[in-house]
Amino acid sequence: MSAPHPTTLKPYSARIELHANPTARRILEIMDRKKTNLAVSVDVTTTAEALEVVRRVGASVCMVKTHCDIIEDFTLDFANELVKLSKQLDFVIFEDRKFADIGNTVSLQYSAGHHRIASWSDLTNAHSVPGPGIIAGLSSVGLPLGRGLLLLAEMSSKGSLAVGSYTEQTMKMARGAGRDFVIGFIAQNRVDTNSGEGEDWLIMSPGVGLVSIGDKLGQQYRTPREVVYDSGADIIIVGRGIYGIQGGEQAVKDEAERYRTEGWKAYEERLGRK
Ligand code: S5P
Fold first, then answer.
1. What's the pTM value of the predicted model, to 2 decimals?
2. 98 is catalytic
3. Band of the pLDDT at 274, cuts 50, 70, 90?
4. pLDDT for 72-110, tens place per residue?
5. Within a domain: residue 240?
6. Residue 259 lies in domain
């Protein structure tokens, strides 16, 4: 086993001061305050269902992840309600938009259109494939609003091309852009190798499940412990494992707590490696 990445030995609370970006600071503050490294992905197709899931899981999470383009009755009133809940229940909103175009186009996709993502989402993400202009375009909209950006350095799906030198180049692109807007990565591993003193990135990993090992469409799952302890990720992102559980309202709430407990236990265990 190689030595653990130094960032994984620091408590979330000690990493707050290493970030200037307000969204990154808020995420770490919430994680520390609520003792949770769980993000729930609310991949349902109506606003009523989405708000219901958020109300059930809100107390257990540091973040709620959305795909606003799958919600058939999306309105800005819904977004405002989500923002209200994010304040009441203390979590950050992450619109998983996976931008992937030239800077000018993504700046419009982020600020305008039906969804006006930048107006309500604290965090969003982008593929690195178009080059650094994508960061500049999104930053021109998001930075003045205090928003944050993650780059997709790796993916959880089988056969992903985001591996090896693609992942390395993505990391380099983030470093080149600076940490005022890019705050971390969607990745399966601690891709921030050779970090300098005070250089801190948030690693968020989807593809997390306690029961299932995958789906029929290439998704691959690992347990919270594998993700947080073995691979050193900071946040686990869970979708169907929580909102898809059978058994009604209480079951969803209980399952979120179960993932929160597992994720936190793995984090405490990794701190003990010192
Ligand atoms: O590599 C990735 C990146 C993301 S953001 N793999 C993923 O699965 N995701 C997202 O995480 C995906 O779009 C979905 O919203 C969530 C995983 O959902 P689950 O139901 O499989 O847990």
1. 0.98
2. yes
3. low
4. 999 999 999 999 999 999 999 999 999 999 999 999 999
5. yes
6. 6-265
